[in-house]
Amino acid sequence: MLHGSTHPDFAEVARALRRILPKRGAGGAAACVYHRGEKVVDIWGGTSDTRGTPWKEDTLSISFSTTKGVVSTLLHLHADRGLIEYDAPVAEYWPEFAEGGKERITVRQVLCHEAGLYAISDMVEHGREMLDWDHVTSRIAAAEPRHAPGTAHGYHALTYGWLVGEIVRRVADNKPFPELLESELARPLGLEGLYCGVPADQQHRCATLMARGMNGPIERRRRNTQRILERAERWRARLSRLGFHYDPSESIAALMAPGMEDLDFNSEEFRAASIPAANGMFTARSLARLYACLAQGGELDGVRLLSYDTLRRATEQQNRGAGRVIPISMRWRLGYHRVFAVRARVPGGFGHSGFGGSGAWADPQRQLAVALTVNSGVGTPFGDTRIARLGGAAVRCADRR
């Protein structure tokens, strides 16, 4: 059963969400859609935990890499103010970053995943270190790129958030990252569920993650990690024999810190930390409203977040082709990727999806914004078909309208 409201023109989106909800067992989801600045879908259903607690209108759900689109927007806001130049060296804002031969890496190369700093396994010795912002950023500053910057692209699955987030912090008087999200994005747009570092008084709103292999007893999580590593090694050998250049070990290096399976993704400690590439806790309503502002040229309900010129530059395609971490073309913009939608084309769209099924994106040509949050099931590190199916339904509804 779904709760909330749906404009009759977008009834297909509600049907798509019903199909996404688990047919049996626990799990829930929420979807929100804006069209031409109007909220036309705001619905939710299912359960937020294994005890059967109903998903509520203000339930927060971990959205993994969907967080990257949010932190990218925060950087673009500061670029719009003239505080950050895309083609300036990162070290201009973060002097320690120049170590390890990185003095010429630009902000643009970071945003489009061309910096060569994707291997979290090179930077931390245990996943628990990721809970300490200053520790990780100091390790990134000391790291050496895995390839010459600008010569290739490799998805910075975990390091991206600290790279972009620290650049922003350096030009914003070193304010804590959660404070920047609140003051620069959430408060101006009236977003009631946009966190990367959930405060103690909001922890009760968080849905339990029920993704296979990522929760449950630690021994089970460790066995799952071992299976992933063994599978990657088999694929590496097989692809090498077939003449393919993709090396799965590069993906493992980007996606898995040593001992990361020891982290409890449902703990208050993990939710309170800021990992801006991976642990954003959002409502679909807040994600959709943020992207609705971008779909409207940077302004929504009288609030101007970005200038049209900055938004245009931020969403221009930077590269194409398979990357060193993701073996498909994501057509990276500056912090956003292409929109995948079932039975629909969105050539001018941009956004970010995440492991576990969440995602959010904007299509300025249709003035359309779509967001989905979920807490069960598991897909690929860059999303699965659920956001693509829901997004395709939204596009078809907008086109018929």
How would you explain this protein's 3D organization?
- By secondary structure, the protein is α+β, with helices and mostly antiparallel strands.
- The protein has a domain at 2-65 and 198-210 and 278-400: DD-peptidase/beta-lactamase superfamily (Beta-lactamase, 3-Layer(aba) Sandwich).
- The protein is built from twelve helices and eleven strands.
- It has helices at 11-20, 66-80, 107-111, 133-142, 159-171, 177-189, 218-242, 248-255, 268-272, 284-295, 308-314, 385-400; strands spanning 2-6, 28-35, 38-46, 61-62, 194-195, 281-282, 299-300, 303-304, 350-353, 359-363, 368-374.
- A six-stranded antiparallel β-sheet has the order 1-3-2-11-10-9, sandwiched between helices. A three-stranded antiparallel β-sheet has the order 4-6-5. It has a two-stranded antiparallel sheet with strand order 7-8.
- The radius of gyration is 20 Å and the shape is globular.
- The two termini are 26 Å apart.
- The mean pLDDT is 92.
Summarize the structure.
By secondary structure, the chain is of the alpha+beta class. It has 12 helices and 11 strands.
Separation, N- and C-terminal Cα atoms? 26 Å
CATH class of the domain at 2-65 and 198-210 and 278-400: Alpha Beta
Provide the CATH architecture of the domain at 2-65 and 198-210 and 278-400: 3-Layer(aba) Sandwich
The CATH homologous superfamily of the domain at 2-65 and 198-210 and 278-400: DD-peptidase/beta-lactamase superfamily
Q: What is the general shape?
A: globular
Q: How much helix is in the residues?
A: 25-40%
Largest sheet: 6 strands, antiparallel
Strand order within the widest sheet?
Answer: 1-3-2-11-10-9
Question: Number of DSSP strands?
Answer: 11
Mean pLDDT: 92
Order of helices and strands: EHEEEHHHHHEHHHEHEEHEEEH
> What structural class do you assign from the helix and strand content?
alpha+beta
Helix count from the secondary structure assignment = 12
**Low-pLDDT segments:** none
